[in-house]
């Protein structure tokens, strides 16, 4: 069941390609490739893997003209909207727009003077391409940093508003904003401050969050608190590692808050002295093999028949360890007994039947 958010605030709706962001649209899951954008094959393969795991909008870095000239081919080879990440050089932004990208991430304050900004804005407006102003604690303007002494939430907000004003002065309002800090508390405070000042859609993320566990924890806490308070229209979980690994974390956060439902949620018991099957291996294997399933489904893997089915009553389907055998249960009721060695295969068949989606083997 999808719940509405606590104190949900309504932002303006914009479109990145065909994907609505803001307003009454569901929170959108984004990611960014970590391949060399000039490497067409590697970049497109990664985008396809991201899409299979649920990425709805993808961003690629465009550090030079060679990368910009690869964008048109990339755009034609993928089916989710493509955002070009630009710094410093307005010509890269113009080239990306002409290549047909669906969004830009750039800060108008760092691409040159007014005339250069005007040219980018005009081209973006003609094509109805939105721009994300992305303020980052590591790249704050020197004068703002000097005044606040550190990249505080107030400093981040001032930088964001300064960049937004440059776009607004040119008559551009297809804007979304992000203000990322590596500090979870600063991120939360900054977005809360910002959301009181603007009604543009907000892109949430905790930057430089760390490796898988650390990144997942920081993102879950930072994004979770904000989303719970109705702040955030699109999210990116940031981890050091393959970006595909961000997807289950992003959907896990949204699922936990009742905001989105997608894919298989594996419910597994912590195991104890009663455990009769290898819960860890089974749970990991199920998670791995069902990673690309889109239909929402709860699958339980429980260690014993004493408490297992009862504890997992909410699950659509599950397995529980029994003596020498395992059992399959649905909605908390035991339906059949299976030899332990056959458990994984039997459960995968049940999932396939319930979702109608082929499992990756
Ligand atoms: Fe222990 Fe059974 Fe509960 Fe798992 S389901 S923690 S094995 S009692």
Mean pLDDT: 92
Characterize the largest beta sheet: strand count, sense, and whether it forms a barrel. 8 strands, parallel
Give the name of the CATH architecture of the largest domain: Alpha-Beta Barrel
CATH C-level class of the largest domain is Alpha Beta
Number of strands: 15
Number of domains: 2
Helical segment tally? 12
Radius of gyration: 23 Å
What does this structure look like?
It contains 12 helices and 15 strands. The protein has 361 residues and is of the alpha/beta class. The protein folds into 2 domains: 14-256, Alpha-Beta Barrel (TIM Barrel), CATH 3.20.20.20; 264-355, Sulfite Reductase Hemoprotein, domain 1 (2-Layer Sandwich). The strands form 3 sheets. Strands 8-7-6-5-4-3-10-9 form an 8-stranded parallel beta sheet. Helix 7 (184-197) runs parallel beside helix 8. The radius of gyration is 23 Å and the shape is elongated. The structure holds iron/sulfur cluster (SF4). Iron/sulfur cluster is lined by residues 269-272, 274-275, 302-304, 306-308, 311.
Explain briefly what this protein structure is.
The protein contains twelve helices and 15 strands. The protein is of the alpha/beta class and 361 residues long. An eight-stranded parallel sheet has the order 8-7-6-5-4-3-10-9.
